[in-house]
Amino acid sequence: MTIELKDVVFSYPETPDKSVLNIQSWAVSSHQRVFVHGPSGGGKSTLLNVLSGIIRPVAGELTMLSQRLDQMTNRQLDRFRANHIGYIFQQFNLIPYLNAVDNIRLANQFSKTIPQAELHANIIDLLTTFGLDETDRDRPTEKLSIGQQQRIAIARALINKPEILIADEPTSSLDKTNRDVFMSELHAMVSETKTTLLFVSHDLSLSDSFDRVDSLADINTAERAH
Amino acid sequence: MFAKLALKSLLNRKGSVFLTVIAMSVSVFALLAVDHIRSQTKDSFHSTVSGIDLIVGARTGSLNLLLYSVFRIGNPTNNIDWSTYKSVAANPKVAWAIPMSLGDSHRGYRVVGTTQDYFEHFSFGKKQTLDFDTGRPFAEVFDVVLGSEVAKKLNYTLGTNIVLAHGLGKTSFSLHDDNPFTVVGILKPSGTPVDQSLQVSLHGMEAIHNPRQPATKLMEQPLSAGQSTQVLFEPEKITAFMLGLNSRLATFNVQREINTYSREPLSAILPGVALSELWQMMSVLENTLRLISGLILVAALLGLTAMMLASVRERQREIYLLRVIGAPPIFLFLLVELEAIWVSGISILIGAAGLSLSLMIAQDFLAANYGLHIDANIFSQGTLHYALLVMGATAFAAAIPALAVYRSAKIS
Fold first, then answer.
1. B317/A92 CB distance under 8 A
2. CA torsion, points A67, A70, A75, A79, in degrees to nearest 10?
3. Contact status, residue B364 vs residue B309, Cβ threshold 8 Å
4. Which helix (H) or strand (E) holds B368?
């Protein structure tokens, strides 16, 4: 299993008695593309933050790529995230004042999985794959369209060749045309790189090309209790 | 990438960063200016009195005597009889003596009546004597030797005729225009008040103050063979004189002899001791200026801290993004610190360059009006220390927003 959760509980320190996440058992296999849907405020972002090691569960076992994240130190968690997880958000995926190349280079700064000598060429390859013009590569990303920014976000998430890619409502700020382009490019890239994809969205119409569709309401018992 | 990210982040917040840089630059300017002007003034004063063992004048305070006789600041309280000078100069312990008569001026520059010993024995800096850029020392009654700045500013050359004025103001209603002087020599720059002075012979000084008849008429009188016109104008009074002794060990002895001189009340001072008294008095002002410039720096640093703290709140998404791509909290701490160091470094460069430029512009004014020779080159070990101090203080001040980022990164 690539991702495995067992009795994972999370509650915020201000409200320790009120758990936001309570997952008894949930797992994702290698190279699987899983679509998780649920309403806003259902704990989707909390689940993704726990999976990426940004926040720690207060109880339970969290295993990713056969490593126990709940037993790692903060530094180990940071390194694990940099080396093994790619992340795409709904918006603000990029540092707005850096250009596309520097944004992607920054992601490699904390991973160093790609040698410096090869890095620039890899970045250019990825950006070319996602159809970003040479002129747009050097512009601050805040000057680019939302569609271009989201494509750069995929490139940034994939530069370190992560085993797991987490996408948190990445299409919600895109129009239909850009959304379709984004989804097809994402699936193509994930298939090519054999990356495990965890895609979270409230929009079930996007779930067609996924191997599995899970409802957060079924996974998270804390939500049911509300 | 780290430095680039910090710099680009600052450039993304140009408005607030610009104002912070200006505030920091002003504080660096003030800090460096106080230190540089203080050290340059000290150096300038110390180098001006090199090699003089005693300065003698009419009974007065040591500082007043030092300031008016050497630095041409302030006025003498009284004159000394020429016979007194001759008596002291004849003391076997005295190696040389330079008499000085002050009180006249030319277009705001002070005139010093003296003897040729002035060019032979007066030394500055590391025992350097006065050198001539062009011409020679005065030989005749109405010869004048110009300091380098006087010649440069007034555009005088050898042979120029000039008229001295009674008193020290730039505008005088009492001109000695019936006795013009001729420029016979121009001195090389010395970085001392000599550059701002005109040197004439004591005889020349006496000649223009002769109440009986114009000196030029007097000089038409027949003289006996081998007699110089100078004998007609034997000085009666002088303002002060400098002494060089045969042995430093005799200094206190000679000082006591002069201070207890029975025929006239005199003051003999050791220039080094008087300078120390001056610095002691000045230290209060120095410390006040340092304190003020320090407070300006603190205010600027508080501004920097406030700006950085505000930016941290605005950049929560950016911080989160960096965390997600693997940036550890320490990276974010150092990123904020580096941004502050960038601001500080740029401010130091602007402040230092601004000070250098200001000194370049004000150099002549300070020299002409205050006798202060301040070098526009401010780069020294002291400047480096201050730069490091500002950098250190910046790093300390930036620790507040940096810790805020660090904590928020840990919590997230």
1. yes
2. 40
3. no
4. helix B329-370
Question: Please, which pLDDT band fits residue B168 given cuts at 50, 70 and 90?
Answer: low
Residues A116, B262: Cα–Cα separation, whole Å? 90
A114 touches B at CB < 8 Å: no
- Measured between beta carbons, the chain A residues lying within 8 angstroms of B11 are 97
Amino acid (one-letter) located at B270 = L
Placement of tokens 């968690």 in the chain = A77
The 8-class DSSP code of residue B158 comes to: T
Contacts of B325 in chain A (CB under 8 A): 81-82, 87, 106-107, 110, 156
Measured between beta carbons, which residues in chain A are less than 8 angstroms from residue B2? 109
ipTM: 0.84
Give me the count of residues in chain A.
226
Residue A99: predicted pLDDT: 92
Radius of gyration, alpha carbons of chain B: 30
B169: closest CA among B109, B113, B239?
Answer: B109
Would you give the end-to-end CA distance of chain B in angstroms?
Answer: 24
Q: Would you say how long chain B is, in residues?
A: 412
Cβ contact A89–B11 (<8 Å): no
pLDDT tens for each residue of B332-384 = 999 999 999 999 999 999 999 999 999 999 887 776 666 677 888 888 888 89
Q: Tell me the C-alpha distance between A224 and A215, whole Å.
A: 12
Pick from A75, A79, A87: CB nearest B324: A87
CA distance A119 to chain B (A): 13
pLDDT band at B88 (very low <50, low <70, confident <90, very high): very high
Q: Is A93 on the interface with B (CB under 8 A)?
A: yes
Task: Give the residue from chain B lying closest to A78, CA to CA.
Answer: B326
Question: Using alpha carbons only, what angle is made at residue A158 by residues A142 and A138, rounded to the nearest 5 degrees?
Answer: 35
Distances (CA, A) of B2 to B8, B304, B331: 10, 20, 9
> A75, A76, A77, A81: best mutation site toward chain B, by most B Cβ within 10 Å?
A81
Q: Chain B contacts of A98, Cβ < 8 Å?
A: 5, 8
* E strand map for B191-292: 197-201, 237-238, 240-245, 266-269
In chain B, domain spans? 2-45+279-411, 54-269
Distance from CA of A55 to the nearest CA of B (A): 6
- Mode of pairing for the β-strands spanning A85-88 and A164-168: parallel
CB–CB of A110 and B328 under 8 A? yes
Bridge partners of B98, per DSSP, are: B242
Which helix (H) or strand (E) segment holds residue B186: the answer is strand B181-187
Give yes or no for a contact between B164 and B108, defined as CB atoms under 8 angstroms apart: no
CB A159 within 8 A of CB A108: yes
A109 touching B (Cβ < 8 Å): yes
Q: Which CATH architecture has domain A3-225?
A: 3-Layer(aba) Sandwich (3.40)
- Chain B contact residues (CB < 8 Å to A): 1-2, 4-5, 8-9, 11-12, 317-318, 320-329, 331, 410, 412
Considering chain A, what is the average pLDDT of its residues?
Answer: 87
Q: State the number of CA atoms in the 13 A half-sphere of A71 facing the CB.
A: 6
